[in-house]
Specification:
The protein is 62% helix and 3% strand. By secondary structure, it is an all-alpha fold. A hairpin with a 4-residue loop joins strand 1 and strand 2. The radius of gyration is 22 Å and the shape is elongated.
Length: 237
């Protein structure tokens, strides 16, 4: 029975939005963009200079990072939703999921995420823990993402916490695409670089390659999580 991941349609829609934006950016870079007034159905002249072109290029990194973080967060949400729908008990869970639940319990009750405390509490709770529903994330924003901002390594570490260890790169340059997307997004978000500074070093072809590589990876991760949920790999049996 196929699994209906909420992450998949959101990914597909956002991917299409970025592809439309990149097509627009291609016309901008080629200098063959024609703007049309939709109200009066007439063409209007508008000059897009180098500075504005670089600003538009930099915006691509915000779109790509949004795709990455929203897809990863939605996939983890799908895992928690599957756990809830399956009605799985604590004793049935794999150790990785047990640890996430315990760390969440500690953070809620003791405001600490110390590994020593986690190990001590785990010995007790393995035998007596029963009320899982209070520890399931109630909103997507409650889901912990390793490192806060997602580069390639953070994505791997985040899924490893769920016992998913087969998140690997498709080619050698793929981690760099993720890490530079994260870095440029942070530069823009924190005002460390202007949009024109961030975009001036990239061509349309390079940004298209970023998009293709990131989408290829995320599509593979979606498939991995789909199999994980289908096989109920969050269980220890």
């Amino acid at each position: 029975m196929p699994i209906n991941l909420s992450a998949k349609p959101d990914f597909d829609n956002t991917k299409k939005e970025i592809e439309k934006y990149l097509t627009f950016l291609q016309h901008v870079e080629n200098g063959d963009l024609i703007l049309k007034n939709s109200i009066f159905n007439v063409e209007e002249g508008f000059s897009i200079d180098t500075e504005l072109t670089n600003i538009l290029k930099a915006n691509t990194f915000l779109l790509l990072y949004n795709l990455v973080e929203s897809t990863i967060r939605n996939l983890l949400w799908d895992i928690w939703r599957a756990l809830q729908q399956d009605g799985v008990e604590y004793s049935q869970l794999v150790e990785e999921i047990k640890r996430i639940l315990i760390e969440r319990k500690i953070s809620l009750d003791f405001y600490s995420n110390n590994n020593t405390i986690t190990n001590q509490v785990m010995q007790v709770l393995n035998a007596v823990f029963s009320d899982l529903s209070v520890l399931h994330p109630s909103e997507k924003r409650d889901i912990f993402l390793e490192g806060g901002n997602l580069g390639f390594t953070e994505i791997q570490k985040t899924f490893k916490k769920y016992g998913i260890r087969n998140i690997t790169q498709n080619h050698s340059s793929q981690p760099e695409y993720f890490n530079k997307t994260k870095a440029n997004r942070n530069h823009l978000a924190h005002g460390e670089k202007t949009f024109k500074e961030c975009g001036r070093d990239y061509t349309y072809a390079e940004l298209k390659e970023y998009n293709n590589s990131i989408c290829e990876f995320l599509e593979r991760v979606i498939g991995i999580v789909e199999v994980y949920i289908q096989n109920k790999n969050y269980k220890n049996i």
